[in-house]
Design a protein that fits this description.
mainly alpha; globular
Length: 139
Amino acid sequence: MLRYDRTRYIALGLSSLLNAALLIYLLELPTDSWPEDYAKRLYWLLAGGLALFGATAMIKRARDIGSSAWGILLGFLFAPPFMLLVGLVLSFIPSNPDVDTLMPSPPAASPKIWLAGAALVLLPWLTVLSIPNLLGLCC
């Protein structure tokens, strides 16, 4: 699917973007250098995967409203915190049905998509809680 409608974007893209930001800011992951601690490296890999999934959802949503994907890509390169605000704005802009005449408009999110979005919200935090136990860092 090359385009995401508003509901599919909120369920999949916005939840992964917000989770990536929460992982970085709430766990106070260092941004100046690669951490020595294995747990923080795993947290960075988890946040990077979530951010990549969220960025692809933002590109698909931008395609659905008729915008270029280059703005999204350049925004992630030069101003990642600002892109959270752009991600929130993308959830309120209505779709443009005349954008892509070769493909039909994307369907609304089904209950399976909403369950996948709920899993994207919960599973990273279950991973964060279990990583110290797996690495033997907890008592």
